[in-house]
Fold:
Amino acid sequence: MDSLTDKISNNLISLSYFTPELILIAGLLLLIIVDLLKKKNLLFPLSLVVLGLATWQLLISWPQEALLLFEGFIKLDQASTAWRLILVIGAFISILISARGTLRSIGEFYTLTFGIVLGGHLLVLSSHLLIVYLAIELMSISAYALTLFTFDKRGSEAAVKYLVFGAVSSAIMLYGISWIYTLTGSLFFLEPEFTGALLSAPIVPLSIGLSLVLVGILFKSGAVPFHVWSPDVYTAAPTPVVALFSVVPKLAAVAFLAKWFLVIHLFGLGSIDWVTILSILAILSMLFGNFSALRQQNAKRMMAYSSIAHTGFLMVPIVSLSEQATRGLLFYAFVFLIMNLATFLVIHFFEQKQRIRNIKEYAGIVKKYPLLSILLVVLMVSLVGLPPTAGFTAKLLIFTSLWESYAVSGKPWVLALFIFGLLNTVVALFFYLKIPFYMIFRSMESQPVDNETNSFPYENYFAGLLVLALLVLFFKPDWLLGFINKINFVF
Amino acid sequence: MLQAYSLSILIFLPLLAAFLLVFMPKPLKGYYKFIALGVSIIQLIIGVNLYLDYESLNAPYSIDAFQFVERVPWINLDLQSLGKLSAEYFLGIDGLSVGLVLLSIVVLLIGVLASWNIQEKVKAYFSLYLVLNASIIGCFVALDFLLFYLFFEFMLLPMYFLIGLWGGPRREYASIKFFLYTLLGSIFILIVMIGLYTSVIDPGATATELGLIADGQPLTPFIIDQVQERLQNGEIMPNQLVRTFNMVFMTDAGNVIPDSFLSTLNPQLVLGHSARFIGFLLLFVGFAIKVPVVPFHTWLPDAHVEAPTPISVVLAGILLKIGGYGLFRTAYLMFPDGAVHYAWWVGLLGVISIIYGAFNALASEDLKRLIAFSSVSHMGFVLLGLAALSVEGVSGAIYQMVSHGFISAALFLIAGVIYDRTHDRLIENYSGLASQMPKYTVIVVIFFFASLGLPGFSGFIAEILVLLGSFGSATVEGIPLLPRGMAVTAVFGLVLSAAYYLWTIQRMFFGKYHVKRVSSDSIIDINKREFTLFLPLIVFALMLGIFPSVLLDLINDSVVSFVNTILKF
Structure:
C-alpha cells in the first residue's frame, strides 16, 4: 500500500506528462477570463494559440514507451498521442471555420469547444471505466450546449433531443459499467486481471454489461442504431459547431472503441462473437447512412447521414483487429478529418455568403465561385472514396486489412462487410454528386444574395490547402503512413 | 533521349495543357481549341514514332516483352508483419496495347476537330477533354494495377461532366447512369485488385529483401526462379514478402503466395466457390459493363444518344475498348484457369451480344440509338474471339477493337452531321437525302458497308478472324472450348447487321426527298471541315481492310504469347 506522499508525488510526476491537457485547461480558464473582461477580439487568436501550443507540446513530448499516470487511471502511449493530435487539429480547423460570420455568445463557444477537446483527450487516454464515463460526459455536456448556439426554436429542439438521448445513453452505459464491476471487481480495463475476470465471467451477465457499455460508445460515435440524434443536431447547430461535432467527439469515441474492442475481444477466446456483431453494426451504419442521405434536401443534413456512413467505415479497421488495421484507422481518421472539415468550411462559406442551406440552392454557384466549386467537387470525390484523392487510399488501406482479416478468420459477416462496404461507394456517389450537380449543371434561379465584387475570399486558399493535402496523400501516402508506422501499438 | 519517355509525355502533355487552359484569361477564348489540337498533333507525332520504333518481340509474357518501359517506384509501404507493399509508376506497351494506343491518339484528334464548333463553356469543355485524353492513354499504357485503376476511375469524372453539360435533352439522367454503372463495375475490379495485391509478390524486390541481389543489380531469370521456388516451398518469412500491384507479376503463377487467398494450387473457397473463379467473374463483370456486354449494356444507349457528337465518338471509339483491353490484360492473363473454365459462358455472352444488339439496332427508330446498338453487336465479336483462345480468335478480337474504333467513330460523326442540321435523329423523318446530300450519302454508304463487314474494309478482316478462331477454338483436354454452333450463330449477326444498315440507307437516302419539320433549304451537304474528319477514318478503314499485316504484324507475337500463357496454365 503506497503512502499518501507517494501518491501525491506520483500525481505530481504524472502532471508533468500531462502538459498538453494542462495547456488546454489553462487555455479554457483564460478564455473565460478574457471573455469576462469583454475583450471579445482576443478570443479567436487566443484559442488558436492555445491549440497550437497544445499541438506543439504533443509533438515534442512524444512518449517513447507506454506510461501509466495518475495511479493507473490514465495510460499514455504513442497511439493515444496520435489520436490527441488528430483531435487538437480537428478543433483548430473548426475554430478557423468559425472565423466567417458571427456567433452569439462567442466566448462560450470557444470554452465549450475546449471542453469537448479535453473530454476527447481524456477518453483516448483513459484506462479506467470511470474516467471513460467522465470524459464522455464532459464531451456530451459541452456538446448539448453548443447545439443550442443558433438560439432559435429548431436549435433548442435539437439540443433537447440530443440531451434526452445523450442522458439516457450515458445512464445505460453507467449501468453497464456497474454490471461489469460486479463481474470483474475492477474497472482498470487494460489490466490483465480485468481480462482474466472477463474470460471467466458467466456469459449472460457479461454480454449484458458489455453491450450496455457499447451502447454509450456507439451513441457518441454516431453509429446505427444510436444515430437518431445526429441529423437533427447537424441541421440545427451552427456550421462550425457541426464541423467540430463531425470529427472531434466522433473520432474520440472511435479511438476508444478501437481500444475497448481489443479488451472485449479477449484474444478471440471470449464466448461472444463481437467481430460479427460489430461487422453487422458497421454494415447497418453504412447502409442506413448512405440510403438516408439519398433523400436529403438540406446540405448539412446530408452530411449528417454521410458521417453516419463514415462511422461504419471507421468501424471496418476496428473489426479487422490487426496492427496494420489500427494504422489504417489512424490514416482514415486523419483523411476523414481533413475532407469533412474542408467540406463544412465550404458549406459554411456558402451559408454565410449566399444564405444557402438546401442542396437545390447551390444551383449555378459555379459561375460566381468557380474555384470553391471545383474544390467542393474534389472533396465530394474524396468523400465517395475515388482516386485520385486520399479518400481512396484510406478506403484501400482499411479494406485491405479487412480482407486479410477475412482470409484468416473466414467469418461470413466480415466478408459481407467487405462487399457491402465497397458497394456502398456506388450509393455514396449518387448523393455526394448532388451538390456538384446543382452547382454546375443547373443555372442560378434567383439573383445571388451577396453581390460583392471580391469573389475570391480567403476560403479559397484555406480549402485549397486542405484539398491539396488530400491529393498529396493520394500520390504519396508514404509520408503520413511513414509517421504512423513508427507508432507502437500494443497488441 | 525523349524517346524513353514517350509514354509519359503522352499522358502528361494533355494534363499540363489542361492545367494551362484553366489559367488562361478569357480574351484568349478563341485559342483554347488550338491548344487541344496542338496537344493531339504532338501526340500523333509521338504515336507515329511509337509505330515506327515498335518491334514485335517473340518473347514469353514477361516484363521483357514490353517496350518503351518506364519503371519508377511510387508508393512503398512497410506493413511490418505483412512484409512490404510496392506500387510503381510502371508504363509500357506490347502487342495487346500498341494498336489501341495508336487508335486512341487518332480518335482523340478527330474528337478535337469534331468539337471545333463548341460555343458554350469552351474552357471547361477543352480542359475536361484534355483530362479525359490523359486518362484514356494512361489506361492503355499503365502496367501497375493501382495506376491502371487510377486512370480507369479518373476517366469517369470528365466523362460525367462532358455528357452532363454538353449533352442532349436527357443528359443529366444519362450521365449519372453512366457514372453509376461504370463505378459499380470498377468496385468489382477493386475487390479483385485488393485480393490480388495481397496475394502476389514482386520477385525482384523480394530477392533484394532476402539479400539474394544487392540494390540496383539487374535481376536474372535464375534469381527469379530461385525466389519463386523458395516462395512455393513456403521458405520465405511473411515479413520479407514484397507485395506488388505490378500487373505483369500478377500474371505469373510462380509469384502467387501459396497459402494466400488466390493461390493457384489450392485456392480457398468463398461461399463454396473457388476464390480464383470468383475473381475472374468479378473482373469479367467489371469490364463487361464497360464493353458493354449484354446484359450489362443498358447504360450505353442512353449515354450515346445524349452525349454530344465528339464525346460519342470518343466513347464508342475508345472507351468501350478499355473494357475489352481490361479483359485481356487482367481477367484473362491473371486468371487463366477462370478463362478456360468460363470460356463457354463468355462465348455465349458474346453471341448473345451480337444477336441481341443487332435485333435492337434493327428496331431502333433513332439513328444514334441504332449505331449505339450496332456497337453492342460488334463488340460481341471481341468477346467471342477472346473466348475462343485461339491465335486467330484473339487476333481477331484485337483487330475488331481497333477496326470498330475507327468505324464507330465515323458512324457517330455521321449521326452528328445530320443532327447538327436538323436537330432530329428519327430515321422515319427523312427520305431521299441522296439527292440533296450526295457527298454525305457516299460517306454514309462507305461506313455502313465497312461496319457490316464488306470485304476490303477493316471490319471484314476482324470478323472473319473471329469467326475462324471461334470455329476452331482452342482445345483443352481434347474438347474445344466453344461449340461450333456459336460461330454459326454469330454469322447470323452479320446478316442482321446487313439488314439494319441497308434498310436504314433505303429509308433515309433513297426514295423521294422529304424531311419532316425543317425547311429543305437548311439541309446542305457536308462542308470541308466535316469531310476532313471522315477522310482519315476512311483511309484507316480501307488500309486495315486491304493490308491487314499493318496491324497483325504488330500484334501477332504478343497474341501468340498471350494464348500460350493462358493455355499452358
Notes: The CA atoms of residues 82 and 330 of chain A lie 8 Å apart. The beta strands of chain A are 67-69, 74-76. Chain A has a mean pLDDT of 90.
